[in-house]
Write a sequence for this structure.
């Protein structure tokens, strides 16, 4: 069985990825169900976990900020710049865990986040390099290694926990 701390971490990660449009609302609802099963509990979390797929999109918009606040977790508004950095860091950790391939990671970061933040900029050039690798002295393996090295740097970068943008002031 999942521990409450592990469930809280997973809930935070799902919320960040949803705010950065990396996952759908249904995944947030499933995460809420998992959190309840692991022993986390709050009124808004219970309502969120009870949502159907049809209700998920609107319910997550409405309930996620409250549910995270009740659990002492950080909410990043949908499409906010504040959600981008933690989402890129989380995706870098997933690459390093073997959940993504380097080329797919570079493509995703480049296309979704590359022009919006300095942290993602190195992946724009690396993603483009895959398309021209046969005309250079580089190999795909060397590009993969460079992406993994950059992902390690990003995933390990020290950062302070941010106060929730919805409650700071």
């Amino acid at each position: 069985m999942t521990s409450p701390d592990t469930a809280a971490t997973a809930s935070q990660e799902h919320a960040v990825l949803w705010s950065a449009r990396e996952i759908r609302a249904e995944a947030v609802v499933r995460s809420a169900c998992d959190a309840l099963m692991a022993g986390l509990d709050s009124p808004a979390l219970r309502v969120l976990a009870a949502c159907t797929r049809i209700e998920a999109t609107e319910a997550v918009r409405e309930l996620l900020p409250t549910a995270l606040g009740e659990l002492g977790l950080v909410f990043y508004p949908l499409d906010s710049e504040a959600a981008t950095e933690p989402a890129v860091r989380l995706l870098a950790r997933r690459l390093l865990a073997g959940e993504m391939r380097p080329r797919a990671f570079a493509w995703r970061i480049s296309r979704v986040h590359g022009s919006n933040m300095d942290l993602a900029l190195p992946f724009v050039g690396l993603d483009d390099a895959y398309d021209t690798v046969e005309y250079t002295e580089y190999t795909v393996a060397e590009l993969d290694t460079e992406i993994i090295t950059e992902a390690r740097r990003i995933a390990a970068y020290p950062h302070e926990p941010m106060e929730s943008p919805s409650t700071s002031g």
